């Protein structure tokens, strides 16, 4: 079975490093949090070129406007204005760099990492990455353009 283009998007939304450059991103509905920065490594220019067989990291720095016992990530590949859900191996934000419980007014670094598999199709997509609190409200939501390439 060939993974969906969302898998490619997910790979873009992986875990970040301190060497990453801040990206221009679109906030797509952060309610319970405020994004300070989104870093993808390596992604020196946009759209991010995701090379098959390579792993990419994402680090999202955000502050919480609420208290929450936990958080859950959801990743989508957006094509033709349709969000296609992509399951990720570790959706639990508390296992992705965030110390839980989440406290109001505190700043957090969300980290994740996923490989871009060589069998993924070469395609242009929008990666949409959400992190929701324990009430299913958006701590953050961001989108960036990516291109999967050989």
TrEMBL record:
Q: Does the keyword Signal apply?
A: yes
Q: Which UniProt keywords apply?
A: Disulfide bond, Secreted, Signal
- Any one annotated GO CC term: extracellular region
UniProt xrefs under CDD domains: Npc2_like
Q: Which GO terms describe its biological process?
A: cholesterol efflux; intracellular cholesterol transport
One Pfam family linked to the record: E1_DerP2_DerF2
Q: So which domain of life are we looking at?
A: Eukaryota
| Family affiliation | Belongs to the NPC2 family.
Identification of the protein by name: NPC intracellular cholesterol transporter 2
User: What species is this protein from?
Assistant: Loxia curvirostra (Red crossbill)
């Amino acid at each position: 079975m060939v993974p969906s283009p969302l898998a490619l998007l997910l790979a873009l939304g992986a875990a970040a490093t301190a060497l990453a450059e801040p990206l221009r991103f679109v906030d797509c509905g952060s309610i319970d949090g405020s994004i300070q920065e989104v870093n993808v490594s390596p992604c020196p220019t946009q759209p991010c070129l995701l090379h098959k067989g390579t792993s990419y990291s994402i680090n999202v720095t955000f502050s919480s406007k609420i208290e929450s016992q936990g958080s859950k990530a959801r990743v989508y590949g957006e094509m033709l204005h349709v969000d296609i859900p992509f399951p990720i191996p570790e959706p639990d934000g508390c296992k992705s760099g965030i110390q839980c419980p989440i406290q109001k007014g505190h700043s957090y670094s969300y980290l994740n990492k996923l490989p871009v598999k060589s069998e993924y199709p070469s395609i242009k997509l929008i990666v949409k990455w959400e992190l929701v609190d324990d009430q299913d409200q958006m701590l953050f939501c961001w989108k960036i353009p990516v291109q999967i390439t050989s």
